[in-house]
Structures are given as structure tokens and as C-alpha cells.
Fold this protein.
Amino acid sequence: MFIFKNNKDLLLLLDSVRKNKQTIGFVPTMGALHEGHLSLVASAKKQTDFVVTSIFVNPTQFNDPTDLLKYPRTLENDIRLLAQADNHLLFTPSGDQIYPKGFNKNRVFHLNGLDRLLEGEFRPGHFNGVAMVVHRFLELIQPDKIFMGQKDYQQATIIRQLIQSEKLPTQLVMCPIVRSQKGLALSSRNTRLSPQWKRKALVLHQSLRFAKAAILQKTPIQQIEEEAIEKIKSAGLNPEYFTIINGSTLKKAKDLRENLVAVTAAWAGDVRLIDNMLLLP
Ligand code: AMP
């Protein structure tokens, strides 16, 4: 596996990949890799010839500076996992490669309002930072496909919007959520959960499954949301939202015939977790 820190090395190699008529798949991550990330690499390997994974803890997407400091960093283990997964190139740039002197970090991306809903309400500026870093990577790498997890449903939807509005020549592939055997969506943040909180946090998956079953029985949307919130509270978590949305507009769904997705965010102690589920088969 190639491991590059500099744009120059990366671009030189990608040039030769393209000259060989190989397609490029890109998997952006912030490291602390787990099976969820590796599933993206596996999909990228199936669908493209040459897979670039990046590890970059992007400062512009953290609205809480302590969250940035607390973010787990496990580079040696990440390298081992990516090598085992037969990833072709790992790009671990430093901040000055991504945001060189003079880079406009104040740029505002027009994301059709998708960035202000749901997570955007609780994490102001977060998605503008995500759009900024992904835009920068897409400009550098120019992949045929970018692979992102459904785990961050809103994030993937926003990047799809970014690709469309910036007319970028990359296709977004959204890959399914990888869960623990008991149902907890894998996340780098789970390492901060005690065994007790890990057990309690299973309520998120349970409430999503409840919502899916209730939708099939045509239960009114608002009633499902209220009952799901109660379930999450009674397990001891502190929910921020449990909302059934239209999966394209991310707005609250009004009608059972829409492309429904249930999305939720809740605090398990001092760890904020998100999860979601597509509700229609
Ligand atoms: P992160 O390193 O947390 O920024 O995540 C990098 C990518 O991995 C994003 O596209 C996430 O949606 C995806 N991802 C994280 N956790 C999972 C999971 N449990 N299943 C599938 N994809 C995931």
C-alpha cells in the first residue's frame, strides 16, 4: 500500500493510474477505523480499480474545539487495517496540504438548505466544514466514485448535493450501515462508551426498528416519533431528535408514501450518537 502525506506525491501517482485507464474510488475518513470504514473500502474495491482512502481529522467541521481534541487518533492500527483490506493508497495529509496559506476557509457552500436541518440545527457550521474538505479532496483526487456511509445519512445527501451544484464528475455511492452483532451502529465514538452505555445505546437501533414496523402498519408519523422519543428516554439516553424525514429533501415527512428515513441523535452520557434507518423496503 502506498502511504502519502503530500499532494505532489499523490497527484503524480494518480496521473499514472489514470494513464493506465484505471478508475479511481475514494473513501474519505477521519481515521480510528473500524469495520464500517472497511466496508466502504471493500465496496470501492469492487466498483473501481484503484482505491484511495484518506485519513484527515478536519478542523473546519468541528464546531466544538474539545470534540476535535478528544477525537481518537490510531494511525498505526489504521494502517494495519487498510493494508489487510488491500487498500491501494492511503493519503494522510497535514493541515497545510489541505488548507495551504491563503486558502479561503470562510467560503460558504450553497447546499440547498440541507445543511441547516437536523444535525445542522445542533452543530452550526459543521456541514459547511464537511463540504469544504470533501470539495478540496474531490478537486485533488478527481475520483470516479466517492464512497460514503449511510451511517451519516445527512452528510452523504449533502455531498451528493455538493457534487450536483458544483457539477463535479464524481458519482456518490452510499454504503449500508455496519452494526455490532447486537445492533449498535459502529462509530469511532463508541470507544468512549462504557459497557453500560453501550448496552443502553442499543435502544437507538431498537427505536428505529420499531419505527420501521410501525410505518408498515400505517401508524401516523407523529405518533411514531413521540413513542420512539419515549423509548430512548426510558433507556436513560437524552434524545435530541427522532424524526421521520423525506430521504431526498431531509424535511419532515408528511405522507406515508414518501421515501421515508428515520433519523435520530441522542446523548449516551457525554457521547453524542447518531443513527438512522430506511423505512421502506
Ligand atoms: P468518519 O471517519 O467517522 O468521518 O467516517 C468516514 C466514513 O465512514 C463516512 O462516510 C461514514 O458515514 C462512514 N461510516 C462510519 N461508520 C460507519 C458504519 N457503521 N457503517 C458504514 N459506514 C460508516
Observations:
- The chain has eleven helices and nine strands.
